[in-house]
Amino acid sequence: xxIKRQAFCMISHALWVAVFCALAxxxxxxxxxxxxxxxxxxxxxxxxxDSKELGIPNVRIYLEDGTYLITDxxxxxxxxxxxAQTHVLKVDKTTLPTGSQLIASSNRNSGDANSLFLDSKNHxxxxxxxxxxxxxxxxxxxxxxxxxxxxxxxxxxxQVQPAITFKGTSLEYEVNNPKTSADIAKxxxx
Length: 190
Hints:
Blueprint: E1 6-12, E2 18-24, E3 32-41, E4 60-63, E5 68-70, E6 76-83, E7 86-91, E8 102-103, E9 115-119, E10 125-127, E11 130-132, H1 137-147, E12 164-166, E13 173-175, H2 181-189
């Protein structure tokens, strides 16, 4: 059975109830699911993103088959079309701000804070967050620079552009043409 639009909603933590809804506007087969999550800086070390804690943009996250996702300006990512089996998400450490230190958030990290195991079942939304725990001034400065391109970014040559950019809180998005640092260097040399 194919579903053209399937809404997935998840309510998290009762103190600051946040509703996350993702609409899959592509056809999703009956035996597929979605993953959604974020990469963020946890300055108070409670393993929750509080209102003043920043999401980390432009972080590349790989699936075990080589497919990759890139976090948006708020540090969020999502992907639909996972088969109903165990999958692995792995953060590309080279796309994290310099000096970042991820911590394990659950036993799904299996002792490696840079990866998460996902047990996918049919039509399930799986939450998968990666937590940066150093909250150092250098990391926060780089995150702010990624969030606001007008700020001078000392690592701009290594910055990865997101493949998809969501427009505000709506479900509309635009597909970007991601450039590598080599592409940027070639463009600047002209």
